[in-house]
């Protein structure tokens, strides 16, 4: 896993869902559909695989090393192996969100 200085839309980019039914959850971009939408999946955060508009996503600096279109089971293994949730919890962004919920 790589922490990137620039937040480009790319396969493997972890995103925070800002609104909609899955607001407040993390998902990873599995495939880019077009200039407005991406296929996302959140294997450990409860987000089912679906297409989402980029307006509903806030890109994080966390990038997973995964191939395009990775299946959900293998994505879950990669998520756990690369400790995405642990990396997210250590960011100041996640800590601010946690403090607001208190």
Strand line-up in the sheet with most strands: 1-6-2-3-4-5
Q: Indicate the CATH architecture.
A: Roll
Number of separate domains: 1
Please count the helical segments.
Answer: 3
CATH topology description: SH3 type barrels
Indicate the overall shape: globular
Q: Sheet with the most strands?
A: 6 strands, antiparallel
Order of helices and strands: EEEEEEHHH
Rounded Rg: 13 Å
**Would you tell me the overall average pLDDT?**
93
**How far apart lie the N and C ends?**
30 Å
Low-confidence stretches: none
Note the beta-strand portion: 25-35%
Reading off the top of the CATH hierarchy, the class is best stated as Mainly Beta
Helical coverage, percent range: 25-40%
What quaternary form is this? single chain
Query: How many strands in all?
Result: 6
Helix-strand category: alpha+beta
InterPro entries: KOW, Rib_uL2_dom2, Ribosomal_eL14, Ribosomal_eL14_dom, Translation_prot_SH3-like_sf
GO molecular function, one term: RNA binding
Pfam family, one: Ribosomal_L14e
Domain Large ribosomal subunit protein eL14: 49-102
List keywords for this structure.
KOW; ribosomal protein; 33% strand; Rib_uL2_dom2; 6-stranded antiparallel β-sheet; SH3 type barrels; Translation_prot_SH3-like_sf; 3 helices; alpha+beta; 102 residues
């Amino acid at each position: 896993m790589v922490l990137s200085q620039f937040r480009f839309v790319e396969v493997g980019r972890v995103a925070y869902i800002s609104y909609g039914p899955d607001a407040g959850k993390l998902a990873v971009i599995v495939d880019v559909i077009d200039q407005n939408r991406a296929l996302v999946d959140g294997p450990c955060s409860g987000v089912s695989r679906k297409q989402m508009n980029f307006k509903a996503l806030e890109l994080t600096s966390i990038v997973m090393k995964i191939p395009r279109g990775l299946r959900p089971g293998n994505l879950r293994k990669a998520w756990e192996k690369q400790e995405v949730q642990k990396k997210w919890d250590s960011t100041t962004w996640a800590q601010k969100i946690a403090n607001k919920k208190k």
